[in-house]
Amino acid sequence: MIADDFSRKIGIHGIRIQLAGIHWTMVDRAAPGPDRSNRTDVRRISANAQDPARTVCRMRSPLSAARVRRALPTGRRAVAAVAVGVLLVAAVVSAVRPRGPEVRTESAMLTVRSGPDGEQPVDLDTTLYLPEDASAGGKVPAVLLAHGFGGTKESVRADAEEFAGRGYAVLTWTARGFGRSGGEIHLDHPDYEVRDAQRLLDWLAARPEIRTDSAGDPRVGVVGGSYGGGLALLLAAQDRRVDAIVPMITWNDLARSFLPESTGGPATAGVFKKGWAGLFFGGGGTVGSGPAGLSGVTAAQPQGAPASAGPPSPGPGAGPGTGPGRAPTGAADPSCGRFAADVCAAYLRIATTGRADQAAVDLLHRSSPAGVLDRIAAPTLLVQGEADTLFPLSEADANARGIAAAGTPVRVAWFTGGHDGGAGPKTDSDRVRYLTVQWLDHYVKGGTTAPGNDFTWSRIAGFDALDRGLVATGYRTTDYPGTGGDGRTDIAVTGPEQTIANPPNGNPAAISSVPFAGALSSLLDGVAGDVPGQHARFESAALTQAVDVVGSPTVSIRAASPTGEAVLFVKLYDVDPNGGATLPNGLVAPVRLAGLPERIADARPVTVTLPAVVHRVEAGHRLRLVVATSDQAYAGPAEPTVYTVAAGDGPVALPTVSGEPIPTAAAVWRWVLAGLLAAIVIGLVVVVAVVRRRHRRQDSSVHPAYADVPLAVRQLRKEYADGFVAVSNVYFEVHPGQVVGLLGPNGAGKTTTLRVLMGLTQPTAGEIYVFGHRLVPGSPVLSRIGALVEGPGFLPHLSGLENLRAYWRATGRPWADAHFDEALEIAGLGDSVHRKIKTYSHGMRQRLAIAQAMLGLPELLVLDEPTDGLDPPQIAEMRRVLQRYATDGRAVLVSSHLLAEVEQTCTHAVVVNKGRIVASGPVEEIVGESPSVLFDVTDPVAARDVLGRLAGVRVLPESDGQLVVDTNGTARSEVVAELVRAGIGVDRVVPRRRLEDAFLALVGDNSRGSGDR
């Protein structure tokens, strides 16, 4: 059902639900923009910022999702066009869809009569939300919307508005004992809270706007989370007028919830869940602890109702508003605030002793759906959280089985949130939101397709690539398998018997979970976690394949105690290969064992059922079974003692469920986008393959004139689409044994020439041959070229040698062809090649980059500024590296701005200016005979004066303390003779030859070329 309808239906209407202080949002595409101009009476005011003591059991449910629009990544043209098209379609659809109805509200204090005799009055603070078009002639179905423990009617305001916007009349109220309502807290007692809700049904049935099935029977669904969810179940069992219910994150048996015992023992033997119980009673601790400091002593008056509406008319069993919410008048203990006396007394007895008596268990059973499930006829959607240490998944499982046994339609949905985990990711919220709306629309509003009874669950799948939020993947299966799953994987755990200590009064205690923050357990490992000496560990081998656990694992343990009793806490960790341990959702199985022997050898195995989880244990991970003596969330024995524990005879049994992923609207769009991108990529690959194949067919022959020439460039021209000419006419050759320098000013065309040479761009005209093969992008002959053109890119955490090996593996060529030793010897790195790259100097990185280019000993080495950033000693070493490489038939092409280095390193040079060759050949020929002469004399100052008087002779500015003279045709012998006659000794006379002089003469002062791109 979901797979077929989800994407289509999810966008038609919108709703935002907040149950038990629980928020969720569904985008209403039919609704107007942010101003909500067609719903002027709707107020989006959150009542969550109340006294923290009153917000104990309010949390964000599966129906929570922020109103955030996630921007989809777009390309520059094609994807942008698609996005514009989608927006246009959405705008048209939004324009033609009908607008949702406006909402009006009526608020008042109602006095209802309940109690064991049905005659005890209590004032309830209520608000009725009505679609604007609801009337006696246009009746609408109703929703009774209950809040969570510690909340008020304001906690569910936004949800009520959204339900009303969908065409429901919604009645919200503050439960007795909370806020401005009167009375005491009886924990959803059938005679009090449940009967209060029955009187509200009477009131709804008397409203002229409400659709009825018969006189006094309103068409109504009941929705609530946690405390409100328990009320929904108990009300449906007590009143057959309820047409459908959606209880969320709620309980089956309060005794088992607060006194769990995981071996199947009675509730009187259960281990007291003191952390949650303390929060519950702290949340009801103050008389009149309402929002904004209301104490229940102000006069009652309608709130927010239209002036013409007047106060609501009382229905059967409801009297007129009577002012202040009646404060409790019984004998309740002051430490329990507004709790009823019997509830307070039971709590104090259990909290004091850590054990429950039968009377306390009976009281909790009285407020539990467990004993009345067979009386529920209303179709039920049970939504339960996987991150919930208060009401775990087993509570919903028990409710589902009890309701289904009576033949009532029931559906179960698990989600990744809960009392500890909040609402879960947006993808989870969307799924549960859809199920809730679908359920009510069919069973309450009518006229829609039956939703079916598929079981759905979800698992955290990772992070969203756009906003880095968590993403949950939903799954479904036709038949509900329960917490036992429909399959099983057995994993053996081993370890010796171990002695563990129970500390006095349970202090210090292990930390496995924190109420409202079960996911925090993963952060506690290594910080608090299990206390040394107070827990035993048993571990499995690494899993050979991943296991998706869905349900309650079972384990077997043995225990011995000198007292004959033991309270233990059993946990199952997921341990990754690095030793990091994760306790899924902080869930623990408490057990109380009696009749234990003193010696472990005499102990019999006991089967422990762990809380149900949805968790993936990856391949390579291990399971760790931990048996601890304390947990701060529970009460244990006060007396110190020592236990001995051992693993049982059987393996850990992991339940699994076979299901299929549930597609979502987001998933559909992702698949569409992925398909579009895949089609574009495939098209590009096909085009490139065709072009390369065409080039290879055309260039498979070898030019006979260049078969033994590493590189021959012929009349190369590169012109861009805008008419810019980067290279107009470049031609040169590089022969074996040569080190050729490619010279030219900035913008002369050097970089463009190298890019064409490396196949990074296509020339407009001309040809390049490598050993006779015409060079085209992707040509196989490129494997005979090693290059460093754009700078090296290394992984800093790897050594130099590891980087080289990673690079060579990426080429896919055989290891024997790499010639690592030869390349490293030429690069001259020595033992430094074994150091991590992050410790390298710039010069060492450059030499390693040269070595990388030399891997495989390519016959042609192309380097762009190889000495960039090096100091003089490093430059000298690089010079020797290149000269060593150009042997055995290999050749080197170097592009550089350092003319002095080119002059000392290169055998040949090619000078480019304005995209053309202005000179090429051996360096000596390009330099030629210089008119400048270098003189070494005994007195340079006197020599400068003497030569300055000679006609035609010019002394150049001093260079490095030497005397440089331009003779301008005057014989050198005459210059020397003149110096000697002046009494100046001449030690040496040598011609001054520099490539720089020749270069400047060739390119001139106006040397800016066409420019490189």
TrEMBL record:
<keyword id="KW-0812">Transmembrane</keyword>
<dbReference type="InterPro" id="IPR013736">
    <property type="entry name" value="Xaa-Pro_dipept_C"/>
</dbReference>
<keyword id="KW-1133">Transmembrane helix</keyword>
<protein>
    <submittedName>
        <fullName>ABC-2 type transport system ATP-binding protein</fullName>
    </submittedName>
</protein>
<feature type="region of interest" description="Disordered">
    <location>
        <begin position="292"/>
        <end position="333"/>
    </location>
</feature>
<keyword id="KW-0547">Nucleotide-binding</keyword>
<dbReference type="Pfam" id="PF02129">
    <property type="entry name" value="Peptidase_S15"/>
</dbReference>
<dbReference type="GO" id="GO:0008239">
    <property type="term" value="F:dipeptidyl-peptidase activity"/>
</dbReference>
<dbReference type="Pfam" id="PF00005">
    <property type="entry name" value="ABC_tran"/>
</dbReference>
<comment type="similarity">
    <text>Belongs to the ABC transporter superfamily.</text>
</comment>
<dbReference type="InterPro" id="IPR003439">
    <property type="entry name" value="ABC_transporter-like_ATP-bd"/>
</dbReference>
<dbReference type="InterPro" id="IPR029058">
    <property type="entry name" value="AB_hydrolase_fold"/>
</dbReference>
<dbReference type="InterPro" id="IPR017871">
    <property type="entry name" value="ABC_transporter-like_CS"/>
</dbReference>
<dbReference type="InterPro" id="IPR027417">
    <property type="entry name" value="P-loop_NTPase"/>
</dbReference>
<feature type="transmembrane region" description="Helical">
    <location>
        <begin position="668"/>
        <end position="691"/>
    </location>
</feature>
<keyword id="KW-0067">ATP-binding</keyword>
<feature type="compositionally biased region" description="Low complexity">
    <location>
        <begin position="294"/>
        <end position="308"/>
    </location>
</feature>
<keyword id="KW-0378">Hydrolase</keyword>
<dbReference type="InterPro" id="IPR003593">
    <property type="entry name" value="AAA+_ATPase"/>
</dbReference>
<dbReference type="InterPro" id="IPR008979">
    <property type="entry name" value="Galactose-bd-like_sf"/>
</dbReference>
<keyword id="KW-0813">Transport</keyword>
<keyword id="KW-0472">Membrane</keyword>
<feature type="domain" description="ABC transporter">
    <location>
        <begin position="711"/>
        <end position="939"/>
    </location>
</feature>
<dbReference type="InterPro" id="IPR000383">
    <property type="entry name" value="Xaa-Pro-like_dom"/>
</dbReference>
<dbReference type="Pfam" id="PF08530">
    <property type="entry name" value="PepX_C"/>
</dbReference>
<feature type="transmembrane region" description="Helical">
    <location>
        <begin position="78"/>
        <end position="96"/>
    </location>
</feature>
<dbReference type="GO" id="GO:0005524">
    <property type="term" value="F:ATP binding"/>
</dbReference>
<dbReference type="GO" id="GO:0016887">
    <property type="term" value="F:ATP hydrolysis activity"/>
</dbReference>
